[in-house]
Amino acid sequence: MRASRKASVFIDKLIDTAKQLVNSFNPVHPELGVSSAHGKDVHVPTPVNRTLVQILRSLEQGAEKVELVPRIIEQLVQTRPVVPARAATSGFAGAPASGPRQKWTNQIANQVVEPLQLFYPRSLNDPADPQSIAAILSRARTTGCAVKAAGSGHSYSDVATTPDFLINTHGYRRVASTQSPLTGQLSPSALRGPLQLSLGPINWPGYDPEKNHALIEMEAGITIHDLNQELQRRNLGLMNMGGYDGQTIIGATSTSTHGSGITLPPFPDMVRSLVLATTGRWNGPTVGGKEPTDGVYFYRIEPKDGITDPAKYSDPLIQLIQDDDCFHAAICSMGCFGVIYSVVFEVMQLYWLEENRSETTLDKLMSELQAKPNNPGHFPDVLQNTRNYEVIIHPYPMRNGKVVDMEPNAPPETYYPYFKCLVTKRNIVPRPDDNLPDYILGRSGHRNVFAQFLSLFQVSFELVVALVNLYPAIIPFTIDTAMDNLVDDKYINYSFDIYNLGLNQDAGFAAEVGLSLEDDQGNYTPRYFKEAIDRIHRLAQRARQQGEQYQTSPFSLRFVKASNALLSMMNGRNTAMIEMDMLTGTYAGSEVMYRYETSMYPIGGRPHWGLDFDNITGSNNLLGKMYPTLDRWVGVYRQFNALGTFNSSFTNRLGFTVLE
Length: 660
Ligand SMILES: Cc1cc2nc3c(=O)[nH]c(=O)nc-3n(C[C@H](O)[C@H](O)[C@H](O)COP(=O)(O)OP(=O)(O)OC[C@H]3O[C@@H](n4cnc5c(N)ncnc54)[C@H](O)[C@@H]3O)c2cc1C
Hints:
By secondary structure, this protein is α+β, with helices and mostly antiparallel strands. It is built from 18 helices and 27 strands. Among the domains are: 110-171, no CATH class; 352-617, Vanillyl-alcohol Oxidase, Chain A, domain 3 (3-Layer(aba) Sandwich). The strands form six sheets. An eight-stranded antiparallel β-sheet has the order 23-18-22-19-25-26-24-27, with helices on both faces. Strands 11, 12, 13, 14, 15, 16 and 17 form a seven-stranded mixed β-sheet that branches. Strand 1 (26-29) and strand 2 (32-37) form a beta hairpin. Helix 2 (46-60) packs antiparallel against helix 3 (65-76), helix 10 packs across helix 12 (475-484) and helix 14 packs antiparallel against helix 15. It is globular. It starts with a helix and ends in a 6-residue tail after the last helix. Bound molecules: flavin-adenine dinucleotide (FAD).
């Protein structure tokens, strides 16, 4: 049998590869050796090496090359690339894996990418860092590759993925200090004031956290957990946060992560300044810095009246932009504008919270949440007087431990007394006396509903999931008991310990949607979240009755102040966020979520950029209807992404992709 010329080149390369592997074979344990081929190390099982030796010997004895091809291929596919220690990354691990052939997965591994290169930068532009952000962008520019920065991979949507150059940002995570300054670090003398910039601990004159505010600058890859530790050392605390702290500060900001409290906006609105590295030139005015020669721009972005005094700004590298649209687009830009290097947050004096959790029923809850026309903005007293107010709501109406079947034609309110709710209220308290008993101060325990749910069974997570999938009818009762176990009249701790619910990051997943809290006059109304609650309850009943599909968790209702970020889910309106949670592995979990999420679009629902399973698309101008500010965001995006460097499956899905 003769091979064509092209085929024979291929066959020679294959034989050459086999020879390289055999010649460099180095047994490292009885079953496995390490060999090198084409400059790469691979694991070679010992029997594979033995068979390759035999094949090559038969070649020397005159066997036809072409006939050996299938046998060689059979052996080669049993080898595996050597993966450097901790290189097979999950987004959360923050492992220093880099280079080609590195798989990246998000936290629940529903997003898996095998990008051209995974990078692990440690600096903005340090020449000693071959993977600096500047070096990556420069390489992307000359090769036409796309770039995306990922945080801790805690988004379930494709918002942090690219098939080209994916950046693990955990390598740059310092907080500004005088000893080891960040690149382009702001100096107190360049600020307009009045807030002081923390370059170390702050000594406050007294305890007044709501009034004592400060600024702090940090690199973008720091996790909220690590930031909280540093803030505590400096006598500072975040103004608010969500129920978890594994995200990076800019990962959380970029998708408009939020906590609860009607006076407290989401993460983007705590940002006062940020440094962006990008390949698109800003067409508006800039101050200081320098025009690049290699097409990689560094911008400090602030609103028009930002914290930096332009007259005193003189950084030699980073150009200052003070522009409202640019800033309000960049603070929630889902990695589409470039790579954010550092950020300045407004924070407050370190503070303590007291938490109270009590049970009620939906009828009582809704009466507590009625508009109060005599209050400013018509806010009900509980929202006005409670710093952090949030609720979890049972998905099924229960009476005497059994699910009640709702008559489809009966008004939803008929069944409100049967829906259990758990209300969490938190307010700032003075620094507590260290002698308070453990059950009040600093107590740990299962403060989230998943942990409660799982702890009831006393068996492994996998067994619980298998059990509830086999006997789904036990789910409503289990949720009921888990909610009961969360009741707690008093718990005091540092704010960050109270906010963080100690979520087991792999136990569950969620979809979340924001609904307006405003009527046509801009006053508070419960109308939209009430309708959303009714829709969830109807869908939960239909899925249970028609297909034995169950929701394995209560859903939550949180209240967030309107955001200035152009594409924040809370943009321009005070917002009720409804989060639907599910135990990982629940039968039909994502189908149930899909029904909930899409049922809220017609009532003005905006899905959370991170907690959406790629359901939202740019079709039918859906996004334009959700966000009246979309065009302004896109206007800024088109400048920074003029070359298409930050195109991704996310921009494709939403119809933003820039085509050159
Ligand atoms: C257990 C858990 C609890 C959660 N709790 C809450 C909650 O209470 N409230 C809430 O609102 N959300 C919550 N979320 C959602 C989560 O906060 C968001 O999805 C958040 O965006 C994840 O941050 P991350 O660091 O993992 O970033 P990733 O998910 O990795 O990335 C998010 C976005 O940030 C961009 N990005 C990251 N770093 C950079 C950078 N340096 N430069 C430019 N772009 C960058 C990415 O490109 C991407 O678009 C939770 C998620 C989980 C898994």
